[in-house]
Design brief:
heterodimer; A: 270 residues; mainly alpha; MetI-like fold; B: 287 residues; alpha/beta; Rossmann fold; 6-stranded mixed beta sheet; 4-stranded antiparallel beta sheet; 10 strands; 36% helix; globular
Chain lengths: 270, 287
């Protein structure tokens, strides 16, 4: 192998690699769509059970034209934001306390570790009993989905705070709440971010599961009505929409945030 | 109470240091029988034998010794970040019971906060002291200029070189106007050229502020170039072998024959106490 490649050819070969990666990816998806359409066209299953990609695209466009999809997305996103916001506030506080206070770690910490093993949809029956078929019940399930991941992420981050930052901060006169808010939390941010990301994934999943049972116009509810109407193309269109929103939140919010944090904290060489 | 000192003088005195009639900004330090023994899973490690030192206000004192001789531990104890196993430290006549802003510790890694830019790093201690935002900003600005980092206020740690990081850390420490600066091999990770420049800057800052400085190093030339006084430590468990008074005018030239003599003498003291197998190690570390 030629070891002495100049940096320019190196860089070029790197961009070649990303280029060929994208080409492979596009070809793969194109073939997948063609295969899908071919199978749908064979007529083994009726159209309303196994629609082709074109029918799904039609349903997607139609759903947006009727305004249904946008309205449903907004309601789901609103619930997600409220639920995730509540989890964030409670989770950061709890994580900080558990990470700093030994007594809470031994008691509350073990409970939270146990609760995290429970899939959050399991809270749905209780939520409906307690709160009825209301927004609050869905949001409760979302909170239960995200809260423990966030708590444990913050806890892990706090425990792994580089001691040198703590020393420097205490030496400069920081103590108590200021030490927590201005030093421990930001120092732990890279680790906390992992918890926040996991929390968001769980929140999104719990939300979709929860919404299946509800009547208000939301993404999960659209899946359910698709079933009621024997309309698989609507179900698939909504699934595509759910994937798109999920990927967008990951790519537009979490990924850039994480990249910036990792760069600034010196975890990657820029 | 902050900044009653004529800091403006620092820039002017860049190369004309040595007027001892300035009022010392530092406070005296008394170390009385301080020792430290660490107890861990692997057993107990005696890091520091009982040490007694009297440091006058405004003195620049270098603690010199091989790595792991407990000099950093002593500094942490003075800073109040570690509790001595025996003995006590008195700073300005008051017993040290924990960290205090009269004594600030500088580390080998600059320990700047990566989530804050230079300006807000320097403001950090002032913010803890409850200073108003406007006053904070002006004070930080003054110290950023003092360490020649003007123009880098909005830079983050990952955008700074090693020397700039140490400058920012020095500005952050000076901003809270401590009476004692505790420096734990602050220039150990820097290249020789940057280190020489920072020596000169540190000397001029010290000359202008007359703070008490305790400077830990394992570099003999660094110690004799900077200190009024050099304490030579033995390998672990650390104890003070010799106490050199270095009364040479500043700025000092490393070619000065008296300074070279001191260096040679200290080297021989160090080498005599370290085993034959450690000799090569000490030589390698001392330049």
């Amino acid at each position: 192998m030629a070891k002495a490649i100049s940096t320019t050819t190196n860089r070029r070969s790197v961009s070649n690699i990303t280029q060929s990666k994208w080409i492979r990816r596009i070809v793969f998806y194109a073939l997948l769509l063609v295969l899908w359409q071919v199978i749908a066209n064979t007529g083994v299953w009726p159209d309303y059970l196994f629609p082709g990609p074109l029918a799904v695209l039609n349903a997607l466009v139609g759903g947006f034209q009727k305004g249904q999809f946008l309205q449903a997305s907004l309601l789901s996103l609103q619930r997600l934001a409220i639920g995730y916001g509540i989890s964030l506030v409670i989770g950061v506080t709890l994580g900080l306390l558990i990470g700093r206070v030994r007594l809470l770690e031994d008691t509350l910490g073990s409970l939270i570790l146990g609760l995290q093993a429970l899939p959050s949809v399991c809270w749905l029956p209780l939520a409906i009993l307690w709160l009825g078929l209301t927004d609050q019940a869905v949001i409760f399930v979302v909170v239960m989905g995200a809260l423990f991941s966030i708590t444990l992420g913050v806890d892990a981050g706090v425990k792994n705070t580089p001691p040198i930052y703590l020393k420097a901060a205490r030496n400069l006169g920081a103590r108590g709440l200021a030490l927590s808010a201005q030093v421990i939390l930001p120092a732990a941010l890279p680790a906390i971010l992992n918890g926040l990301k996991q929390g968001w994934t769980f929140a999104w999943r719990s939300l979709m599961a929860g919404e299946l049972l509800f009547y208000s116009l939301s993404l999960g509810n659209l899946l359910q009505t698709g079933r009621d109407l024997n309309d698989a193309s609507q179900i698939m269109a909504v699934m595509v929409l759910i994937i798109t929103i999920g990927v967008a939140i990951d790519g537009l919010i979490f990924a850039p945030f994480e990249r910036r944090v990792r760069e600034r904290w010196g975890l990657v060489s820029s | 109470m902050f900044h009653q000192l004529a800091l403006g003088g620092a820039q002017q005195t860049e190369r004309t240091v040595g007027n001892d009639q300035l009022k010392p900004g530092g406070i005296p330090l008394k170390i009385e029988g301080v020792s430290k023994t660490f107890t861990g899973r692997a057993g107990t490690v005696e890091a520091l034998r009982p040490v007694d030192v009297d440091v006058e206000a405004g003195q620049f004192i270098c603690l010199l010794g091989p790595s792991g001789c407990g000099k950093s531990t002593l500094l942490s104890i003075i800073a109040g970040l570690e509790i001595p196993t025996s003995g006590a430290v008195w700073a300005g006549g008051r017993k040290v019971r924990g960290p205090g802003t009269d004594r600030v510790l500088l580390f080998q890694e600059a320990a700047l906060f990566p989530w804050l830019d230079v300006q807000r790093n320097v403001e950090f201690g002032l913010r803890q002291a409850g200073m108003s935002a406007k006053e904070r900003s002006a004070t930080a600005q003054r110290y950023i200029e003092l360490v020649h980092l003007k123009g880098f206020e909005r830079s983050y740690v990952h955008q700074l070189s090693g020397g700039m990081r140490q400058r920012a850390a020095i500005a952050r420490a000076l901003a809270i106007d401590p009476a004692i600066l505790l420096m734990d091999e602050p220039f150990g990770a820097l290249d020789a050229l940057t280190r020489d420049r920072l020596h000169a800057e540190l000397e001029s800052i010290w000359a202008a502020t007359r703070k008490t400085v305790l400077f830990v190093t394992h570099n003999v030339r660094e110690a004799v170039a900077l200190g009024n006084r050099v304490l030579v430590f033995s390998p672990r468990p650390g104890r003070i072998l010799r106490d050199f008074q270095i009364d040479l005018p500043r700025p000092r030239s490393l070619e000065d024959h008296t300074l070279v003599d001191y260096t040679a003498e200290i080297m021989s003291v160090l080498q005599a106490t370290m085993g034959a197998q450690e000799q090569g190690d000490a030589n390698g570390k001392s330049d």
